Amino acid sequence: MNDIIHAAGWALIHFLWQGALLGIVAAAVLRLMRGSRPGARYAVACAALLACLLWPAYEFAAALQPGPSRLQILTLAEAGGIYPHSDLLAGIDSRLPLLVAAWLACVGALALRSACGLAWIARQRRNGGRNAHWQQRLSQMAACLGIRREVTLRMVETLASPITAGWWRPVVLMPAALVARMPPELLEALLAHELAHVRRHDFLVNLLQNVAENLLFYHPAVWWLSRRIRHERELVADSIAADLTGAPRRLALALSELEKMQFASQRLALAADGGDLAQRIRRLVAPQQPHGNWKAVIATFSLAAACLSGYANAQQESSLPAPRTPAVVDFRTCSKPLWPKRDLKAGHTGTVTLSYHIAESGKVIGSKVVKSSGHRGLDQAARTGIEKCNFMPAKLRGKPIATWQQMQYVWTLE
After folding, report:
1. pLDDT at residue 123 in the model
2. What per-residue confidence (pLDDT) applies to 367?
3. So what's the pLDDT on residue 75?
4. Contact 163, 272 (CB under 8 A)
5. Residues of the domain holding 336
6. 66 falls in which pLDDT band (50, 70, 90)?
7. Of 239, 270, 305, the domain-final residue
8. Which of 17, 77, 260, 323 could be disulfide-bonded to 83 (CB atoms 3.0-4.6 Å)?
9. Is the per-residue pLDDT at 46 higher than 80?
């Protein structure tokens, strides 16, 4: 359990910079593709959000894999004094259980919110109002779009804007006020837009977005990418609806009427965001010819791939291990090393540096001389003395581990 907690904690911490990197790369690519088709930008934003999910998942899985080489790197780094932030990282490591607990609590609350949204949709599917005329028209339009599944239409009194939900059994929830107040040809254009979501299976992508938002709620890049996906998705659906009805201006007028009605802005967690209505209307009325600097896009992707490749190589060749707490000697168990009679008589002095192996039990099971005092007897006496000591073993992710540490014995005559 400690391994899982520490792996999850460090994966969450590392995603702070990983998410920022992915967000910057995605923003640069989308900026270069601002004149491209919405479908292309939509694919890029979805790929970036998927990377936000997969990268920390990979870090989590990799941290759970046994890696003896990592322990050796840490030991050498400590011995050589090239790991100056070990105290800071060890402090963070000790607080990871609290961090993971807080993260789980927030994820649970957000998941409950999403579950309530799904339950509300299911209830409206069962209890929502029915309209035989518009149900028949919706089925005809679905057939024109090549949708073979039955699409259900329900009228909801308290809804702010149309919602499409479900994949296997899709349902379109339509505000009852729209049916009563909007001209039939405009309402038909809005239904065509909702059917475009059904044909593209956008509900599944929306579920993936909710998973990413729930798990990585603390990172602004995730929310920005998710919002950008919803915006581009609406533009793609507008294009499909305009082609189906053959009247882009009719859909633009329907969106304008929807904006004028000034419904309440509150939406459920799983409701599709209509995006910027004004921008959607402008695009329908005066569409722009798609263009894009694909050479710059390829260059940006190449740069991002190079950065990720360098990161992977660094992880493989010189990645730092998870922080650990070093072994601590119990001085009550130690006895003063005996001065060899021959060296004492000869007046030998010096400093010996020992490297000793501490087992998981805290016992010293081996030692070696790293730097001799210049006298073999003093070196051997130091080794004998350290092997009599007991230690509180070093810990990695809360578990005792075997480790090598160093100590100096200074032999002086007074």
Report:
1. 92
2. 85
3. 36
4. yes
5. 326-411
6. low
7. 305
8. 77
9. yes
As a whole number of angstroms, the distance between CA 231 and CA 255 comes to 14
Q: Where residue 103 falls among pLDDT bands split at 50, 70, 90? A: very high
* Predicted pLDDT of residue 301: 52
Residue 26 belongs to some domain of the structure: yes
297 domain residue, yes or no: yes
Is the pLDDT confidence value at 194 over 60?
yes
Same structural domain, 284 and 374 = no
Given a cut of 50, whether residue 176 has pLDDT beyond it is yes
The arithmetic mean of pLDDT across residues 306-311, rounded, is 55
In a domain, 311, yes or no: no
